[in-house]
Specification:
homodimer, alpha+beta, Alpha-Beta Plaits, 5 strands, elongated, DNA-binding
Chain lengths: 145, 145
Amino acid sequence: MDNLDRGIIDLLRQNARASYGDIGGSVGLSASAVKRRVDRLVADGVIRGFTIQVDPTVDGYNTEAYVELFCRGTVAPDELLRILSGVPEVVDAGTVTGSADAIVHMRARSIPALEDALERVRIAPNVDHTRSAIVLSRLIHRTHD
Amino acid sequence: MDNLDRGIIDLLRQNARASYGDIGGSVGLSASAVKRRVDRLVADGVIRGFTIQVDPTVDGYNTEAYVELFCRGTVAPDELLRILSGVPEVVDAGTVTGSADAIVHMRARSIPALEDALERVRIAPNVDHTRSAIVLSRLIHRTHD
DNA sequence: GATGCCACGGTCGAGGTTGTCCATTCGATC
DNA sequence: GATCGAATGGACAACCTCGACCGTGGCATC
């Protein structure tokens, strides 16, 4: 993981369909050297996958909320992970400092779908209550990884 | 935007480097028909770009926080966008319902870098104060788009 | 029903890209 | 300086891309 790798990753982040030759031209390697490095980065798990960014307003998943999760007693992160991984509307979540135990970013196709997903989070035995902030307008969505 | 387009998008989400021929084999089109549709989807802005998912622990950007933004008076979303787009550590942000004006998801290489980025958000003239929740452990990170 | 138009798909071929081979270079070690 | 390993660049066949061209079907107009 040297500067060449980082350069390749930066270029692939901008355009995952760039040819190895073009990438090599930018970082100063031949196409075959770039391919070897990319293959290694994928094998090592540094590059997790090649994907596309889709306009969220088009694919319909444009109803979002940030939800603070408050649990009863102490809940292990593993336990929270088990609860949340069963709800596909959860885009992003982490345990946090502060009064809430976790913050959960949810995305659904509609307010009812969001409400339904929220309900599935709330019925988990350890969840005491939640506090939601519905997203009114999306300002930034840097889709880094 | 029909079922063929949706199928192509799903396949590209899984592997943005799949060849047009392979995609066509899965959705039942020729390679050129797939290319035409992909080109159209890109031109129409449905597909915003081709990118890679990078292990966040490897690229070093693994210090995160959710920040509630409280503004003085009423602030237009455009104004917030202008403020936040100048801070690259802002991954995701939206105006929200509730007492805060916006929620901002930030990611940096270290706590000092996060603090610095937060400071750059706070010095904006309209920002009254912020309330941060530092992410302790990342639970979910579905990197859909 | 005939006509023109348009959107869409398939086929084809030139040119570019990928993936694999091998010789070479570079640096470290003995 | 000899040897080894890791990485590179170049060569080449197989594959893919991408534009040009043509055929088909839907649809409105005459």
